[in-house]
């Protein structure tokens, strides 16, 4: 790949104590000579940078390639955190022939130079974007190492690929046959493992993306009380007067390990109040995008007709929650949010959104749309292999085995599609 030198701010261009400018390329010692003399590798040293009338003391680190983040020479300049000063330094670097990096270009070079895998790069992107403790832990676990099942799949597929190709090329001459029953016996443990990973991947993706959870019910059904209990602070006004909430309230929070994007809605009922009617009208668009809808019904009551009507098109993602269960006996998902009694709700959310798994059970699982789609394709390829009958032409299992191997290569990034890489790295910041 090209080794054209690049630079970028690795910290936001905002007033701060320190600003970090990162540079990568080949031959940086000569290229930066007009600005500074680089220190010994991996030894932080103070240097005075002089350019265009500016004089700045900087802490400088030099990582010669290939033992660096990108596999090229990398220099990091820590300067005072004045955004104008950082901008002027970047402009001077451009005059030295070092262009501004594109989003994610440092990590892209690390990938293409073999310093990082595609799964690691995706985990790094998710780590930077994480907004909850659960999402941070999920990204960190995926960055640690390649999932064990990928190596196991390769160890299982490799010898069968060799046998299948030998049967195709020399079967008739050397009487080489491919035993389909043995192949199926060898692949069945992988099928079980893949199904487990599919379940974990679905749950991990919910955690990665956050759960859009809407609270819906009649006025005074306990929506705002539950909203405050999940958020952990008084964000919604709670009174005995019906219709206190007249608009949609939205908060991001983490509750019992679940990253939530929580929506408290206006109480749904027939009203002539124009403000309340506007609030109710905003509920339907929210229901269309929610991952899950909690229909709050006070214990001992029946659902009201206006709420039933608005929820009718979305029953597949509705959970009925009985509120004020400390006052009247209730079955199903029964809670008393004002007392902090929410265990039944936690169980219901984990079952519906995570398949009963806890957040820790998702650590290390695939979590992005790209990864999950390739895993689904891999499961489908394996099912085709297991459906083969004895005596089928060897070209058929050979092709399917090659297809499965290719899906693994696409998953890990060893088979690189430029369009896929463009989509991935466009989501990175400049300094990554």
Question: Can you give keywords for this protein?
Answer:
432 residues, alpha/beta, Four Helix Bundle (Hemerythrin (Met), subunit A), Rossmann fold, six-stranded mixed sheet, 45% helix
In short:
The protein is an alpha/beta fold and 432 residues long. The protein has three domains: 109 residues, Probable tRNA modification gtpase trme, domain 1 (Gyrase A, domain 2), CATH 3.30.1360.120; 110 residues, Four Helix Bundle (Hemerythrin (Met), subunit A) (Up-down Bundle); 148 residues, P-loop containing nucleotide triphosphate hydrolases (Rossmann fold, 3-Layer(aba) Sandwich). The protein is built from 15 helices and twelve strands.
Would you write up a description of this structure?
It contains 15 helices and 12 strands. Strand 8 and strand 9 form a beta hairpin. Strands 3-4-5-2-1-6 form a 6-stranded mixed beta sheet, covered by helices on one side. A 6-stranded mixed beta sheet has the order 8-9-7-10-11-12, sandwiched between helices. The model is unreliable at 241-246 and 416-421 (pLDDT under 50). The protein is flat. It has 3 domains: 6-114, Gyrase A, domain 2, CATH 3.30.1360.120; 148-206 and 362-412, Up-down Bundle (Four Helix Bundle (Hemerythrin (Met), subunit A)); 210-357, 3-Layer(aba) Sandwich (Rossmann fold), CATH 3.40.50. It has helices at 28-31, 83-95, 105-112, 118-129, 133-144, 148-174, 180-209, 223-231, 274-281, 283-289, 305-311, 343-354, 369-386, 395-412, 418-425, and strands at 6-9, 16-25, 45-51, 54-63, 73-81, 99-100, 211-217, 249-255, 258-264, 292-298, 318-323, 333-334. Helix 5 runs antiparallel to helix 7, helix 6 (148-174) packs antiparallel against helix 7 and helix 13 (369-386) packs antiparallel against helix 14. Helix content is 45%, strand content 18%. The two termini are 18 Å apart. With 432 residues, the protein is an alpha/beta fold.
């Amino acid at each position: 790949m090209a080794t054209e030198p690049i630079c970028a701010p690795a910290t936001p261009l905002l007033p701060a104590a320190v600003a970090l400018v990162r540079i990568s390329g080949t031959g940086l010692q000569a290229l930066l000579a007009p600005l500074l003399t680089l220190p010994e590798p991996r030894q932080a040293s103070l240097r005075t940078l002089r350019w265009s009338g500016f004089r700045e003391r900087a802490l400088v680190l030099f990582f010669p390639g290939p033992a660096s983040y990108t596999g090229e020479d990398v220099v990091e300049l820590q300067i005072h955190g004045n955004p104008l000063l950082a901008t002027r330094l970047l402009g001077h670097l451009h005059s030295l022939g070092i262009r501004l990096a594109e989003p994610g270009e440092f990590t892209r070079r690390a990938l293409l130079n073999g310093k990082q895998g595609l799964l690691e790069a995706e985990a790094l992107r998710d780590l930077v974007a994480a907004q909850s403790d659960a999402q941070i832990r999920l990204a960190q676990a995926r960055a640690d190492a390649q999932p064990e099942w990928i190596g196991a799949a390769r160890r299982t597929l490799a010898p069968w690929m060799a046998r299948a190709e030998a049967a195709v090329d020399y079967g008739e001459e050397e009487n080489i046959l491919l035993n389909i029953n043995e192949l199926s016996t060898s692949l069945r443990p992988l099928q079980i493992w893949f199904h487990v990973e599919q379940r974990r991947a679905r749950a991990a993706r919910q955690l990665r993306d956050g759960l859009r959870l809407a609270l819906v019910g009649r006025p005074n059904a306990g929506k705002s009380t539950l909203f405050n209990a999940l958020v952990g602070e008084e964000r919604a006004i709670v009174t005995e007067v019906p219709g206190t909430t007249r608009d949609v309230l939205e908060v991001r929070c983490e509750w019992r390990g679940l990253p939530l994007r929580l929506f408290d809605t206006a109480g749904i009922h027939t009203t002539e109040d124009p403000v309340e009617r506007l609030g109710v009208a905003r509920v339907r668009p929210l229901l269309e995008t929610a991952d899950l809808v909690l229909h709050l019904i006070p214990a001992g009551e029946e659902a009201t007709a206006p709420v039933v009507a608005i929820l009718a098109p979305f029953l597949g993602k509705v959970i009925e929650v009985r509120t004020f269960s400390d006052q009247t006996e209730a079955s199903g998902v029964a809670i008393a949010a004002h007392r902090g009694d929410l265990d039944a709700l936690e169980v219901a959310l984990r079952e519906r959104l995570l398949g009963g798994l806890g957040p820790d059970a998702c650590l290390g699982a695939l979590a992005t749309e790209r990864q999950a789609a390739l895993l689904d394709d891999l499961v489908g390829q394996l099912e085709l292999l297991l459906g083969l009958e004895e005596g089928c032409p060897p070209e058929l299992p050979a092709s399917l085995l090659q297809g499965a191997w290719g899906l693994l290569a696409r998953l890990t990034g060893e088979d690189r599609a430029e369009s896929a890489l463009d989509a991935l790295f466009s989501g990175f910041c400049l300094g990554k």
